[in-house]
Amino acid sequence: MTDRCWIKALATGVAAVLLGPLPAAQASAAPALTVRNGHTQPVFSYAGAVRERVFVEAPMDSDHDGRRDRVAVDIVRPAEPGLKVASVLKATPYIGKNGVFSDWYDEYFVPRGYAVVEAAVQGTGESEGCPATGGRPDVLATTAVVNWLTRRARATYPDGRAAVADWSAGAVGMVGLSYDGTLAEAAAAEGVPGLKTIVPEGAISSWYDYARDQGVAYTGALGDRYPEYQADRVISDAARARCGEALKALGDDAADDAADYTAFWAERDYRRHASRVRASVLLAQGLNDQKVRGRQFATWWQALAEHDVPRKLWLHDGGHEDPVLTGGDAWRETLHRWMDHWLYGLDNGIMNEPRVTVQRPDGSWQTFADWPQPGTRDVRMWFGPATPTAAGTLRPSPSAHGGTHSFTDDPAQAETTMVADPQTSAAHRLAYLGPPLTEATRLSGTTRVRVRMTSTTTSTPLTALLVDYGPASSQPSAAPHAETADLAPAALTGKLPSKLPVVTRGAIDVKNRHSLTRPSPVTPGRSYTVDWRLHPTDHVFPAGHRIGLVIVANDRDYITTDPAAGSVTVDLTHSSLTLPLVKP
User: Fold this and answer.
1) Which residues are catalytic?
2) Given this model, what pLDDT does residue 484 score?
3) Buried b (16+ CB within 10 A) or exposed e, 423-432
4) How far apart are CA 179 and CA 231, in angstroms?
5) What is the pLDDT of residues 302-334, one digit of tens each?
């Protein structure tokens, strides 16, 4: 049966509760949901719900013990006999750390006629196997659970009896923050039947982009055998004794020495398989998330659009956190209606509404037809000359007088120093300021930088910081929203200053200027054109503010320090900043 036919048939059954009392001949029919105004209603007992554990057989043996890994799955579902329900599934490596059903989904969705299911991926919690930090075993463990919920995989109860999901309606929606949402994207990229929708929140669509920025490792644990570090954080005590070699291989295969994009990272890049996605996607991202950065959601969003995947985007003003913390009841209702529509086929109008919702720092919400906002255009601004006591400028056309700017890397320089006093010349950074804005201007999308440069050394990163400077040009604007949740310890991404006016960042290893897979040598004194991207974001520059760009080599608060970096000279005539701008 096609998805369209399945939704129609299921919607017909659900809608029966809206049509009044059943005829006498049907009075003993199976129990059904209660629906009002396009919403499933909380009529089932949460206290009296069925709670059970099963072990699903996954199609791999990641710990090489001679048998297939079994994935521990916990279920809470309405107790009414004969009731067929859809499933809200969270696959996660954190059950052993956080406990089962630590989110709000079970208490909310079970009374409304859903099963809420949590699965510990292999090597974590009570599941067999070895952790893989986003690798193929993660995908197979997750899709095995979907397959069991749609009766295409085997499972047993803890006592060994066969476990059949005869209560399942065969419709699964995955949800989760961070790694949990990452597993949802990984499963969707498999095109697994029965997975009708996913709701990833602050999720990783490419593990390379999580640990690296265009050939440069992020600072902290992300730059030092990160996949091994992450697996070691979540591995169960039972798995640790037999997975030592597997964990070591994760660190070895990360190729920290070059930070290039390798086959190891390609395996963990779900965007490559966006053409397989058959599930709809409700994508959520914090605009101030400094752990899972903007490239993760924006590039995934673009890939979904290219393949015409049904989708919505929710950009909230928080950090790495469940959007319910910033969106409250509005997010809960959006998620509820989304699941009702895609898992029960309810025509509640959610797909007729604007595709994108964006929260501003003052807590207000705006809706748009798409993202980047339709009408956004690339505005190119060229680097202009400076004086010994003044910053460079951002101009609408190349400087007629040409010239160069130089700086010498200071690996100890903090971001607070980099962005301070932009109108003052400094030896260890370049700063460029645009004119005061005559009206509010929205940045929506990916900022790009191009420089023509020479280096005094054979290796150097280039880092760009886009800055929102207040009306007095040298004063920072208000601080971004502070992030409130955690994917991992702060050491993973460094302790970024919390009161900077930095809108977005981006860095590149100049050796990776042509390719992330094949680095090109750098010859001191030779000129190179280097293009790189800053992390996509959505930000409104108020009228009277000035757009600033700061360029350095090393940024200890952001990327792993390259000790070989020296001095860099930039050719103004061939260097520019391209901003995706639109009226708010």
Assistant:
1) 178, 289, 320
2) 28
3) bebbebbbbb
4) 12
5) 999 999 999 999 999 999 999 999 999 999 999
